Amino acid sequence: xxxxxxxxxxxxxxxxxxxxxxxxxxxxxxxxxxxxxxxxxxxxxxxxxxxxxxxxxxxxxxxxxxxxxxxxxxxxxxxxxxxxxxxxxxxxxxxxxxxxxxxxxxxxxxxxxxxxxxxxxxxxxxxxxxxxxxxxxxxxxxxxxxxxxxxxxxxxxxxxxxxxxxxxxxxxxxxxxxxxxxxxxxxxxxxxxxxxxxxxxxxxxxxxxxxxxxxxxxxxxxxxxxxxxxxxxxxxxxxxxxxxxxxxxxxxxxxxxxxxxxxxxxxxxxxxxxxxxxxxxxxxxxxxxxxxxxxxxxxxxxxxxxxxxxxxxxxxxxxxxxxxxxxxxxxxxxxxxxxxxxxxxxxxxxxxxxxxxxxxxxxxxxxxxxxxxxxxxxxxxxxxxxxx
Length: 388
Known about the structure:
Layout: E1 2-3, E2 8-9, E3 16-22, E4 28-32, E5 41-43, E6 46-48, E7 53-55, E8 62-65, E9 71-74, E10 80-83, E11 93-96, E12 102-106, E13 109-114, E14 121-126, E15 132-136, E16 141-145, E17 151-153, E18 156-158, E19 163-165, E20 172-176, E21 182-186, E22 189-193, E23 203-206, E24 212-215, E25 221-224, E26 234-237, E27 243-246, E28 252-255, E29 271-273, E30 291-293, E31 300-302, E32 307-316, E33 320-327, E34 330-340, E35 347-348, E36 353-357, E37 368-374, E38 377-379
Antiparallel strand pairs: 1-2, 1-6, 3-4, 5-14, 6-11, 7-8, 8-9, 9-10, 11-12, 12-13, 14-15, 15-16, 17-26, 18-23, 19-20, 20-21, 21-22, 23-24, 24-25, 26-27, 27-28, 29-30, 30-37, 31-36, 32-33, 32-35, 33-34, 34-36, 34-37, 37-38
């Protein structure tokens, strides 16, 4: 990095590898190797050169100025959390302005910028929850990019001070506290904990054998989910205020609270399309009205709870074969099915298999389209349905 005030240049020892990973949204970015720098913030006036990086104090989140011109934040397991979307500007740099503005520049020209300006900037850094923050001279936050990480895949650890969140808000957090306690917070209140406080320096591991374990600084296990036969999966902080551990078969093996309410129609957490996605001109409707479960043809599709089948339709031009089930004020439509296994008027429960997944109607590949309505109004399925 180079400070415009001292005219000196300090190179941070972060190295980018050529490994490619896929980001939700179908863009591919280069994943960096393990960071070797502990710089958490860059002072105002600093220029981040190619391969320079900032790392959160817990070492779990890194912001890297890549050679392709993209400024990218990586989380636990090299998951991409945020990007400046300025790839294609080879040799670009990131400038932490003294006016409180962060910009990506190439050959002296601004490619992208963040912050209103007109302030006195102090520094720009990476917080323990992955958020990116610009501060003023009084150490107050001028502006912040609310990035977050909601899942940790097997083979990774959650270090002391690390905060996971279900979304950009602070309503649902899962924190490995400095006192050794792994705690879930919902709307600011602790709703679950491992009760392992008194062991500062402890960390949590999402293990390849399927176990979630809290280890003390002496590497002794303090708490375990006791799911060592589940296989490598992932830990997910969900929008339904539950923290769930999934095994190698993408099925729930442990959760911080019992699963209640309406359930996701398939035993998988793989998502290929989300509610509200812009599908481009020519699609009717243009914006995706549901969420797609990425499962192969013939996967069992279940009812979401206790309800009544209100529609079973075959060979619809758009949805193909589909089923609608009513649960009180909520209806759940599952579409592109290969086989329908229920009849209109039939009562079902969460264990009832109502269909098999398929690739019928306007579908580009095997999946289940899940669409939800409350009182007839479209809603995001991920806010209503809980993974099995």
